[in-house]
């Protein structure tokens, strides 16, 4: 049963297990948005491998693409040597980037999102000859040293001392809990002013940075979409000052937000696009899209063993083709709007839902204490205990979802992009069951 496997795993592994504490199951099978555990319980999976499984679990085309590699005789792993499959994958991926691939080149960086973030930071330093990076509160970029250094969340950083120096954090325009009241125009203008002053070195004491790194929709930080105007201003100012704009699309990319890339909502073009998760169709792969003028690497300057996973390129290519050929972004955008409307109805009946926000199938539900006093911004205090209880009761109701944001107060939806409307209705039903079971 589940307990046996969980106990055995606890013996095998060191004490850093994270998910099993909140989601105590041993998975036997999975199909689409559904996971079945070893006791034959079924769960609707709204985590989807932390957003990796864009086509859900075990999509037949994805499985077939693995089969095709196996029967073709291709090696499973090729370092950075080329193959016809790598050629096809690269051409297809480039064709999705701005300018249909003419403006960008690719760099395969390794298996994980953090690998690609590291490469992006190094490249920006090499291109500009400067060291500083500007990053944002609530941003998440990974757990390796550089990526963690630019991650705007203190708790994983407190585990070790000595992060990368010369990282400057600025407030991200949070729709609900922003120190500058960023929900409105005035807030966006205030943050833009702050950013421009920093860059222009007006009384900031900060040296001009090499790059700005951000997520156009923050994921782990609690599902925060950036206002388009703010992104446009950042793009304009960075360009004027020769600062590279690195956009981390590891989670928000590949139709998750109802556009192929989340930065498209603001109509801007990054200098470096960080891609992982869905780009490998469920298998480990990470790639940078680099504006050609910033491709400053020389051979040997940035290498890594696992950059040639042929299975990941096969599953990635299949996934990218499926997403684009079936116009999944449009479907996701429409479903996101519908779902936010349904959750807003639920919010009227359950005021513990402080805010519902997000884009496409990247939605966050902020859990608050509605009976306590509002702060000066008009927000209720967040409720970490209730949000943890809700996650637990969601699990009991057969719903797997993760939390994020400050103190984990945001319940996050990140399901397969192929989730059906019927399955979204099941989600709503189960979520309401969890609200009721939590005594709300
Ligand atoms: N960037 C973003 C936006 C992410 O969401 C994540 C992972 N959640 C990462 C980077 C790091 O990716 P990985 O865990 O594969 O290193």
Automatic annotation (TrEMBL):
Keywords: Aminotransferase, Pyridoxal phosphate, Transferase
Record-linked SUPFAM superfamilies: PLP-dependent transferases
Protein EC: 2.6.1.-, 2.6.1.76
InterPro entries, alphabetized: Aminotrans_3, Aminotrans_3_PPA_site, Dat, PyrdxlP-dep_Trfase, PyrdxlP-dep_Trfase_major, PyrdxlP-dep_Trfase_small
Record carries keyword ATP-binding: no
GO terms assigned for molecular function: diaminobutyrate-2-oxoglutarate transaminase activity; pyridoxal phosphate binding
Cofactors demanded by this protein: pyridoxal 5'-phosphate
Family: Belongs to the class-III pyridoxal-phosphate-dependent aminotransferase family.
Xref: PANTHER family: DIAMINOBUTYRATE--2-OXOGLUTARATE AMINOTRANSFERASE (PTHR43552:SF1)
Annotated protein name in UniProt: Diaminobutyrate--2-oxoglutarate aminotransferase
Source organism: Buttiauxella agrestis ATCC 33320
Gene name of the encoded protein: dat
């Amino acid at each position: 049963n589940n307990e046996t496997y969980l106990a055995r795993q606890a013996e095998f592994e060191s004490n850093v297990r994270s998910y099993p504490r909140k989601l105590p199951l041993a998975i036997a099978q999975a199909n689409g948005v559904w996971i079945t555990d070893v006791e034959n319980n079924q769960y609707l999976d709204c985590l989807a491998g932390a957003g990796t499984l864009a086509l859900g679990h075990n999509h037949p085309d994805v499985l077939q693409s693995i089969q095709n590699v196996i029967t073709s005789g291709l090696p499973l792993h090729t370092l950075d040597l080329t193959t016809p499959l790598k050629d096809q994958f690269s051409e297809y991926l480039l064709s999705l980037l701005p300018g249909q691939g003419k403006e960008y080149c690719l760099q395969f960086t390794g298996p994980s999102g953090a690998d690609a973030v590291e490469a992006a930071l190094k490249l920006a330093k090499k291109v500009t000859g400067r060291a500083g990076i500007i990053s944002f509160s609530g941003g998440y970029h990974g757990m390796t040293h550089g990526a963690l250094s630019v991650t705007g969340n203190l708790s994983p950083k407190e585990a070790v001392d000595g992060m990368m120096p010369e990282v400057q954090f600025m407030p991200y325009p949070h729709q609900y809990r922003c120190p500058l009241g960023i929900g409105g125009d005035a807030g966006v203008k205030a943050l833009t002013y702050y950013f421009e002053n920093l860059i222009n070195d007006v009384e900031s004491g900060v040296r001009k940075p090499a790059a700005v790194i951000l997520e156009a929709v923050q994921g782990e930080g609690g599902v925060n979409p950036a206002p388009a105007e703010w992104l446009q201003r950042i793009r304009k100012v960075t360009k004027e000052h020769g600062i590279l704009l690195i956009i981390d699309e590891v989670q928000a990319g590949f139709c998750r937000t109802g556009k192929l890339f989340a930065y498209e909502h603001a109509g801007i073009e990054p200098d470096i696009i960080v891609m992982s998760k869905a780009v490998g169709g469920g298998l480990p792969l990470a790639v940078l899209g680099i504006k050609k003028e910033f491709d400053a690497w020389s051979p040997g300057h940035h290498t890594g063993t696992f950059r040639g996973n042929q299975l990941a390129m096969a599953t990635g290519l299949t996934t990218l083709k499926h997403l684009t050929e079936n116009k999944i972004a449009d479907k996701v955008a429409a479903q996101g709007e519908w779902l936010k409307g349904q959750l807003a109805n639920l919010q009227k009946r359950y005021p513990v839902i402080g805010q519902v926000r997000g884009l496409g199938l990247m939605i966050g539900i902020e859990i608050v204490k509605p009976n306590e006093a509002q702060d000066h911004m008009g927000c209720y205090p967040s409720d970490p205990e209730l949000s943890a209880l809700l996650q637990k009761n969601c699990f009991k109701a057969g719903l797997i979802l993760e939390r994020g944001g400050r103190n984990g107060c945001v319940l996050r939806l990140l399901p397969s992009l192929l989730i059906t409307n019927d399955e979204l209705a099941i989600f709503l039903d189960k979520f309401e069951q969890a609200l009721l079971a939590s005594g709300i």
